[in-house]
Design goal:
cadmium ion transmembrane transporter activity; Calcium-transporting ATPase, cytoplasmic transduction domain A; ATP binding; Calcium-transporting ATPase, cytoplasmic domain N; alpha+beta; 757 residues; single chain; 22 strands; ATP-binding
């Protein structure tokens, strides 16, 4: 048991013994009350001397003077009561801090110590510090992953709630990465270590937590300074009460009620509660100082790629140049890109496979400095890369025409050259994060008045995202040093926070008043430079952290103001002789308890919304959305190729019509019967899903028209009018379905957290 609680128990025992001995042995009662007061006075004196040696003056000297004065005046019971007040306040502070740090302490206490390494045919228990990259580790059910690694052989079911706050287990397939600190919620599996324990995710989180626990925030230091002003004021007030009344008892009463516990305890407890509450949301704030600055932020700056967008590009279109076909360009590029793990390469290969193209195995594949790839595919020399890269190897890109205009308008573009001739361009899009619009709204609601993008991407791409999200300003084509200049300019107008995820964001994160790193998959350099680290890959947690910080700061100031106001009022009452020392001690203890309990209110609320019941079928809805997005992509690609009757691909059109009937329409019917009623009950209102139902009706109507057009179509006799109508319906369905999926996920996210897809 901690020392403070032992002292409190001793004081309570002495006071109980003194109360029992009051009638039978008054002398023994006085001795017991003195025994209760003296140890506490000795400890306060020791702490005061230590503070004085450090060049400061401790405000606990008020309590020391009060105990000494009570003993000198023979007010032994009052002295014991003051000692109880001090001991109880210390124990209460200890309890409050432990309660406030619970989320942080839980993170640190879960650090694994032992790992099970496969050595030959056996398994050996080793210290976690001995793990090396490449080791095969057995993770048993219920165990915490000791290091970062990749799942081997069989899928793993992992509980990531301790790090991310996501309540539901996730499944990681063989080859998928798994972070240290998560718990095996399924069967035993084998993990191949990719880092040592010190270099793993969880060790970095523990270091962040320890840094957060050790910092004294500006508000706490300010409270200490206020308390020092309060000390001479108290002594002067007590002296004046004695001098004017001639009663030392009044002076003692003033000292008793003047203990500035509300000032000393309220700020640190409230701010630590705020840090702990943010940790519950999957956000590590590096101490109360960062939390206090976060609470005062008025401007938020964002990187684009990986922060406001998913950072996982997809192929939005293929534009061939004369002499080449769309499928030909995509097939050759994807065949070559199979040899690369770059995110753009992965997107190109996925698009080709989704289109049903047969990929060939390339030869002589080699990386080109600057982010390109070159090799031989089916006897043809293929190069894929950016415009600058192809120009650097002597190829001339078209300056005008559809390909040039589309490449300029796209988020980014990869050009394809075949046998020394530019064959076409792959148009790439980077989806805005599904939770980003809500995060922007929540930040504005939390008091952030200016939202700015700072990115190294092209201006056209950045402006499109900025307009879609309603940002106040967009700064594009920036080098890391340019980002710092923008951050410094914004700081001149108020406290700023910068959110980013890459190595190039680290300088800007360090330059901002509060740097926020997307630590779930962002660069380690960004996390080290940041004041706040998001353990879950969701930008909406920034708004939750800002809200928690503002609530903590407000309650801290409220507790200080109310507590000190009550103490000042009690001092005035005591100075006029209406509050005897004994009752003053009881009143002050009540004020201390009230202040601490008020500070602990920061921990209330802030939980994630409860999930809809299983009957709502939300997991099935989200699975269908993934398949529907694939269908929408195929619809768009098919429509892009429909320019004349000769382009009619009856089999593709019929397959799309069949999937609209067998996937889309049953999906909508299931939503109307299962999901929408539960969602409507949660949202409230007369008909909160009326617009969604109307969109269902329109999609069903368009699907029926498309089916009627396609069913029985003869490709040999198709007219230009039929080709135009098929293309028009595909484009309209593409737009309406995509909008409907986004709107539906936004509504679902209002009542429960959805996985980022």
């Amino acid at each position: 048991m901690p020392q403070r609680r032992w002292i409190l128990l001793f004081v309570l025992a002495c006071m109980a013994g003194g109360a029992a001995a009051t009638l039978s042995s008054p002398g023994m009662a006085r001795i017991l009350w003195i025994a209760a007061a003296v140890p506490v006075a000795a400890l306060v004196a020791r702490d005061t001397l230590r503070t004085l040696r450090g060049g400061a003056l401790g405000v606990d000297i008020v309590a020391l003077v009060a105990i000494a004065g009570a003993l000198a005046l023979g007010e032994n019971f009052t002295a014991a009561l003051i000692a109880l007040m001090v001991a109880g306040g210390n124990a209460l502070e200890e309890f409050a801090e432990a309660r406030a740090r619970r989320e942080l302490t839980a993170l640190v206490s879960r650090t694994p110590r032992i790992a099970h390494r496969q050595d030959g045919a056996g398994i050996a228990d080793i210290p976690v510090a001995d793990i090396r990259p490449g080791d095969l580790l057995l993770v048993k059910p219920g165990e915490t992953l000791p290091v970062d690694g990749t799942v081997q052989d069989a899928a793993a079911v992992l509980d990531e709630s301790a790090l991310t706050g996501e309540p539901l287990p996730v499944t990681r397939a063989p080859g998928d990465p798994a972070r240290s600190g998560v718990v095996n919620a399924g069967s035993p599996f084998v993990l191949r270590a990719t880092a040592t324990a010190d270099a793993s995710t969880y060790a970095a989180i523990v270091r962040l937590v320890q840094a957060a626990e050790g910092e004294r925030p500006p508000m706490v230091r300010l409270a200490d300074r206020w308390a020092l002003w309060f000390l001479p004021f108290t002594l002067v007030a007590a002296g004046a009460a004695w001098a004017l009344s001639g009663s030392a008892e009044r002076a003692l009463a003033v000292l008793v009620v003047a203990t500035p516990c509300p000032l000393i305890l309220a700020a640190p407890v409230a701010l630590v509660c705020g840090v702990s509450r943010a940790a519950r949301q999957g956000v590590i704030v590096k101490g109360g100082g960062a939390l206090e600055r976060l609470a005062r932020a008025r401007t938020a700056l964002f990187d684009k790629t990986g922060t406001l967008t998913t950072g996982a590009p997809r192929i939005a279109g293929v534009e061939p140049l004369p002499g080449f076909e769309t499928d030909e360009v995509l097939q050759l590029a994807a065949s070559l890109e199979q040899m690369s793990q770059h995110v753009v390469a992965v997107a190109i290969v996925a698009a080709a496979r989704s289109a049903g193209l047969a990929l060939s195995l390339p030869a002589d594949a080699a990386e080109i400095p600057g982010g390109g790839l070159s090799g031989t595919v089916d006897g043809r020399r293929v190069t894929v890369g950016s415009a600058g890269l192809l120009e650097a190897v002597g190829l001339t890109l078209p300056a005008t025409g559809a390909a040039a205009r589309l490449a300029a308008a796209a988020a980014s573009a990869s050009w394809v050259a075949v046998d020394g001739t530019v064959a076409g361009v792959l148009l790439l899009a980077d989806r805005i994060r599904p939770e980003a619009p809500r995060a922007i709204r929540d930040l504005r609601a939390a008091g952030i008045t200016r939202l700015v993008m700072v990115t190294g991407d092209r201006a056209e791409s950045a402006e499109a995202v900025g307009i879609a999200l309603g940002l106040d300003a967009v700064h594009a084509d920036l080098a890391p040093s340019d980002k710092i200049d923008v951050v410094k300019a914004e700081r001149a107008t108020g406290v700023t926070l910068m959110i980013g995820d890459g190595i190039n964001d680290a300088p800007a994160l360090a330059a901002a008043d509060v740097g926020v790193a997307m630590g779930a998959r962002g660069a380690a350099a960004a996390a080290e430079a940041a004041d706040v680290v998001l353990l879950v890959d969701r930008i909406d947690r920034v708004a939750a952290a800002v809200a928690a910080a503002r609530r903590a700061r407000f309650i801290a100031l409220q507790s200080i103001a109310v507590g000190m106001g009550l103490s000042a009022l009690a001092m005035a009452v005591a100075a006029f002789g209406y509050l005897p020392p004994v009752y003053g001690a009881l009143l002050q203890e009540a004020i201390d308890v009230a202040v601490i309990l008020n500070a602990l209110r920061v921990l209330r609320g802030g939980g994630r919304p409860a999930a809809l019941p299983a009957s709502a079928g939300v997991p099935r809805v989200l699975e269908d959305h993934v398949r529907l997005r694939d269908l929408v992509e195929r619809m768009r690609r098919t429509a892009d190729r429909l320019h004349a009757p000769d382009d009619m691909r009856t089999a593709e059109l019929q397959q799309i019509s069949d999937e609209l009937r067998t996937l889309l329409l049953p999906h909508q019917l299931a939503e109307e019967r299962r999901t929408f009623p539960e969602l409507a009950r949660r949202l409230g209102g007369r008909d909160p899903l009326g617009a969604m139902t109307r969109m269902h009706d329109e999609i069903s109507h368009l699907s029926a028209r498309f089916g009627a057009l396609v069913d029985g179509m003869d490709p040999e006799a198709a007219s230009a009018a039929e080709a135009r109508e098929a293309r028009r319906l595909l484009y309209v369905l593409d737009a309406v379905i995509a909008l409907h999926l986004a709107a539906e996920e936004e509504l679902l996210a209002e009542v429960e957290e959805l996985p980022v897809r």
